[in-house]
Amino acid sequence: MTIAHSSSSRPESLPPWVRRGLPALALAAIILTPFATGGKFHFHIAIMVCLGAMAASGLTVIAWVGQLSLAHGAFVGLGAYTSTLIVMRLGAPFFVGPLAAAVLVGVTAAAIGTPLLRLRGVYFVLITFALNELFRLVMLEIPSISGGSSGIPNIPPASFGSLILSSKSDFYVLALICLAGVMLTLWLIHRGLIGQRFAAIEENIALAEASGIPTARMQALAFIIGSSIAGFTGALMAHYIGFISPETFGFQLSVAYIVMLVVGGRLALCGALTGAIFLTPLPELLRGAVEYQHIFYGIALIVVLQFLPEGLVSLPTRLTNIGRSK
Amino acid sequence: MGFLISQSLVNGIILGTLYLLMSIGFTLVFGIMRVVNFAHGEFYMLGAFAAFFMVTLFQLPYVVALGLSFGGAIFLGAVIERIVFRPFRGDELSGMIASIGLAMILQNLALIAFSPDPMAMPSLASGAFRFGFLIVPKSRLLALGASAGILSLFYLFLMYTRTGRALRALVQDQEIAAAYGVRIELMYPLGFGLGVGLAAIAGAMMAPLFGVSPFIGETPLLKAFIVVILGGLGSIPGAVLASLLLGLIESFTSTFVSASAADIVVFALVVVVLLIRPSGLLGQEDA
Q1: Beta-bridge partners for A163
Q2: A298 to chain B: which residues are within 8 Å by CB?
Q3: Does residue B269 sit at the A interface (CB-CB below 8 Å)?
């Protein structure tokens, strides 16, 4: 069930500035592309990449303790509804929305996390699947809050005082900042003591428990952090798209995040980001042929699982290793 | 009131039997291969399409169509087991994720090949039987009888043939089974093929009742999920109990409350069962 993730500790043939510099350069190029072309459409794709990467990074944190959540779409949805209702019904300023969404989703995750996380492996996947479905069904049943199957339209765009981020290029800047914040959070967790504890649990939970790591509390912590990130992302998504309905946050959305996570790299710091960068633009390029896009996703998922179980992020290391062994 | 209760009881039992046929293959595949097969519903859909085309296009008798879609699914399943699932033996999580990928591929291939519009299949029987004040549509009764027949045959196969015994041994303990000469290289593809074959035959049986479209796989997948969670992953007696329970709960709640309330009650029950007894009502205690 666990996948060895020690490849980063192997000696590398490339000097460190090349190994770190090249991806950073590529990332900078990708980030700046929409500004260079100036196309609305490119900004839209870039924003969707940011939002996908953020939500899927939440899954990364949960994957660090060895769990795979199929309820991620529901948490994104809970965040989206929280922010929408706070801003539209209570008239709160925009910035309150995503923060309240992160807090409320975090509290929810804390409340249900402890009993849920007693289950591991496929059982955890099954219960989160059931919860995701339950969320969708319950939301459809309370149209006074959720808008029912017709959803809530005309959600106001993100704004700070008189600065309204209604254009795509403005919102992209906000999305980039938030993504940077999420990645920074992940990096801090990953390199700290908590990250080591997470890794110990992922590798061997019995041994971790025996070594004095409070495994139940650590797993709950990972679940809370990961789900809060999902809630925060959902809030941004609602204000960007301007429309939400319970159907938006079904099984398909949870699966989409899992595809990004697995294709990019389940445990790598930048795995979800890599997955989002490679997979999000695809539907836009294959417009009018959604079927082919999903077939491609399916094949990518199986091929990556079989031949590159550590995801696309492990490709450079793999290639240099092959090059060296010649 | 007495009428409503007995009619709900009958509807619940019919529904439960149909759910059992939809989910028995799912639990078999998990029992043998430890794979939670998210593509189960897609094989149901393929079975429905196969029967639909054989009956409407080639004018084959319905029973032949049933047999051919069952056989075709076993073959397809065995091939897929070799290509897709083989590298993930012993890795439940990766096998499950791979099955999500497989489901996406199969459903969208069907969308390209068959277009998303639902198609109606001619009913095999019309009218209804009346037992006193109870009303049972003949088509449902036929599906009930055929399902019960298929399930009994499958039960006899599992209990009294060499291959069936080998499959049951694999469900109990793979290593010991292998040590006693069960040929895993043969039994894994066969087990997966049989599991999805049962899904396909369920699809072929339900096609005249519910119509055919590339999306019809979602319902049986959901029901199979619920049944195996309630009954215990991999437990066949558990699946029987849970299917009937599910059918009865749905039938009674939708009669006395509403159809959407039935879904919520069922999912809430699933969450409660998973929390209190993760291995299900009759599952092995290994979760």
Answers
A1: A160
A2: 100-105, 108
A3: no
Decide if pLDDT at A10 tops 60. no
Block residue for tokens 């393929």: B46
The confidence score (pLDDT) of residue B284 equals 59
Tell me, what DSSP letter sits at residue B131?
Answer: E
Distance CA B14, CA B254 (A): 15
Helices B259-276 and B236-256: crossing angle in degrees, nearest 10, is 140
CA distance B143 to B145: 5
Q: Compute, in degrees rounded to 10, the torsion defined by CA atoms B171, B173, B178, B183.
A: 0
| Residues A218-274 pLDDT 10s | 999 999 999 999 999 999 999 999 899 888 888 889 999 999 999 999 888 888 999
Do B78 and B233 contact (CB within 8 A), yes or no? Answer: no
Closest partner residue to A298 (CB to CB) among B91, B105, B270 is B105
pTM, two decimal places: 0.86
Nearest CA in chain A to B104: A298
User: How many residues are present in chain B?
Assistant: 287
The reply to whether residue B98 touches residue A305, judged by beta carbons under 8 angstroms, is yes
Could you report the predicted ipTM of this complex, rounded to two decimals? 0.82
CB spacing of B101 vs A300 below 8 angstroms = yes
Distance, CA of B44 to CA of B76 (rounded, Å): 13
| Tokens 């997955």 belong to residue | A275
CB–CB contact B109 A295 (8 Å) = yes
Q: B170: left (phi > 0), else alpha (psi -120 to 50), else beta?
A: alpha
Q: What whole-number percentage of chain B has pLDDT above 70?
A: 96
- Between the alpha carbon of residue B279 and those of residues A112, B238, B276, the distances in Å are 19, 10, 9
Residues of B in contact with A262 (CB under 8 A): 97
Classify the C-alpha dihedral A29-A35-A39-A41 as positive or negative. positive
The residue type of A265 is G
State pLDDT tens for residues B1-24. 677 888 888 888 888 888 888 888
Backbone dihedral region of A88: left (phi > 0), alpha (psi from -120 to 50 degrees) or beta?
alpha
Q: Which residues pair with A159 in a beta bridge?
A: A164
Q: Where are the alpha helices (DSSP H) in A147-250?
A: 168-191, 193-203, 205-210, 215-241
Element (H, E) at A314: none
- B94/A311 Cα distance (integer angstroms): 12
Write down the domain spans for chain B: 21-217
Which residue type is seen at B137? P
